Amino acid sequence: MTKKEDQKNALESLVHWLRRTPRVVVLTGAGVSQESGIPTFRGPGGWWRNFRPEELATPRAFAKDPRLVWEWYDWRRSLIRRAEPNVGHRALVELEKALPQFTLITQNVDGLHRRAGSRQVLEIHGSIWEVRCPGCGKVEEDHRVPIPIPPYCDACGGLLRPNVVWFGEDLDPRVLDAARQALVQAQVMLVIGTSAVVQPAASFALWAQAAGAKLAEINPAPTPLTQHCDLVLTGKSGEILPLLVRRFKGLGL
């Protein structure tokens, strides 16, 4: 059997699963946003002024030089603002509309899933379009580009930070609990465009699988999760997801 035939059979099996189950969870990673032109943390485009993200996305870096950290985030916000949701994002919106119980968990902070029209979204690493005051706890959306550097809280005057989860920080327990509930109830889980190395998200698929879910991966290259999957579709999300939606709707390939 050729690779093309393997891919077609895997796609048909996934369509069959989706048509038979009401509870689906999708996990997306940076690869989905990369197809909209947003650099990944671990790719060559993720560097800025020769800094690695691990040097800037930390509480320690912010305490040491908040201006530098905000300059990096302002650069990232400018990139994201110019980006548009791609066909993969839009295909997931179509799946959500078609499936009775659908939860989208994303590691991405760019907000592109929401801009595309996804509604049942858990942004486990937060949103780059929100700011938080560590002093008074106020959280609000802020879409200014450029943003005043550094920005200050209009309620208490404290220094604001991006409302994202940095290296060394825990996920918001409310978001993590909502994700866990969806995962243990899932009957099918799709893992799309993620390297499957960042914890705890890297373990989400195994949590779902342990609770009885069938597991499918869509990614251009193998990941540490690949060997555990029931189905693997090799390729970009923008190539495979539109085919999946088309076949799910009975429109052929």
From TrEMBL:
Cofactor note: Binds 1 zinc ion per subunit.
Superkingdom, taxonomy of origin: Bacteria
Enzyme class label: transferase
Catalytic activity: N(6)-acetyl-L-lysyl-[protein] + NAD(+) + H2O = 2''-O-acetyl-ADP-D-ribose + nicotinamide + L-lysyl-[protein]; N(6)-succinyl-L-lysyl-[protein] + NAD(+) + H2O = 2''-O-succinyl-ADP-D-ribose + nicotinamide + L-lysyl-[protein]
An example molecular function term from Gene Ontology annotations: protein-malonyllysine demalonylase activity
Binding-site positions, NAD(+): 107-110, 193-195, 219-221, 237
Pfam families reported in the protein's UniProt record: SIR2 (PF02146)
Designated name of the protein: NAD-dependent protein deacylase
Species annotation: Desulfobacca acetoxidans
Gene from which the chain derives: cobB
